[in-house]
Amino acid sequence: MxxxxxxxxxxxxxKYLAIARALSEAIRQxxxxxxTRLPPHRQLAETLNVSVQTVSRAYAQAEKMGLVxxxxxxxxxxxxxxxxxxxxxxxxxxxxxxxxxxxxxIAHPIxxxxxxxxxxxxxxxxxxxxxxxxxxxxxxxxxxxxxRERASDWLSQRLGVPGEPESRVLCNGAAHGLMLAISTVVxxxxxxxxxxLTDHGLIALSRTLGFQLRGVAIDERGVVPEALDIAxxxxxxxxxxxxxxxxxxxxxxxxxxxxxxxARVLDHHGVWLIxxxxxxxxxxxxxxxxxxxxxxxxxxxxxxxxxxxxxVRAGYLSVPRGQLHHTLPRMRATTWMAxxxxxxxxxxxxxxxxxxxxxxEQRRLLAERQRLAARLLDGHERSARPSSLHVWVSLxxxxxxxxxxxxxxxxxxxxxxxxxxxxxxxxAPRRIRLSLGAEPDIARLEQGLARLGGMLDEAxxxxxxxxx
Length: 468
Prior knowledge:
By secondary structure, this protein is an alpha/beta fold. The protein is 44% helix and 13% strand. The protein has helices spanning 15-29, 41-48, 52-64, 81-91, 113-129, 132-136, 145-159, 174-185, 200-209, 225-235, 256-269, 290-293, 324-335, 340-351, 354-376, 401-410, 442-456, and strands at residues 68-71, 75-78, 102-103, 168-171, 191-195, 212-216, 218-219, 222-223, 239-242, 272-276, 298-303, 315-318, 382-383, 390-394, 413-414, 416-417, 431-435. Strands 4-12-11-10-9-5-6 form a 7-stranded mixed beta sheet, sandwiched between helices. Strands 13-14-17-16 form a 4-stranded antiparallel beta sheet, covered by helices on one side. A two-stranded antiparallel ribbon has the order 1-2. β7 and β8 (222-223) form a beta hairpin. The longest helix has 23 residues, at 354-376.
């Protein structure tokens, strides 16, 4: 076939790298679609007036980037970008040893020694005092009554989530809760709106459950109400999935006025709301969830993972009236019931205020790391909440995100670009996300941020190799 890469070619850098970049841009713009066969090396070389060796290097580079796949005897084919970028992102999240990369790539709470101590002490106490039903129960599907009751009080009083114990479902983390909420009201082929940049787990879930996901414009306060209204009118979505507090990856957080405006749009259109409030405890008390404004339409999902320790996969799904009988069969089909022992730990932490103490400590430690990042990245545009897990950093004109990611890895630092969080195949923002919690040693975090700041202050190496 004949393809025209000319509009996407750059005059800067090695020719093979310019061709690989042009392929990437053509795919993102939709001019090259998944399943398209690329021209033979010699044909493209003649079209672009370059050597066959240059095209061979360009195709090899594109394959490293996950853009294409070379098939023996068949040629080179465009990959499905979503699958390629998701698999690359997930491959990068393997646990690292102390001597390996400094990890600024994965969303992870800080786990100080005090958190570990509380966990061990609680387990020791439960070994002596745990109720028999924590060990023997496999019903009710939604969770043990005493755990749901305490959780319901905490959700109402601390987070402002409407509902009674009967409307709460205990689930294995927020990702599980989102899956339950979405599958309750969304069928295969339905359309769901979300932020233009959103958590990569939701993007993966759309492919797993087979619903369409479309992005809506965002700004520094989250989804734009006017854009949401237009999208609701145009696309008639079955549901809207939003993260009003510390949107991943940008950190955007809706103030009360923005939440009121978004709620009015959703109420006007009568569309289901699925609220991902997984970062609620990383903000001081005071932010009222969207669900509180739309109790008849809103599913609310949160968990303890981001404020305590990742091993406590305690998630809480609050279901609007009349929907629980649709949710419970999906709970039973996916996990039967959430692990009672995990929720006995959570129940104990809620009862003795350990949860609030751990959340406050998490906010304090993250604030310290945010100040460190601000100092070491001074002079570079960035956005972050005072106690957020992430920093959303703009790149200088000389850098491309994927190039910086590779150069950072060569310098011993793992970072994340915007690509895993993009809902649609549009040009990626020239930003990177830095996560501040995965490294337990703040000295290693400081070292990684300092290296990255040094890279941002300099131009990229002229012959840098991008490896994915």
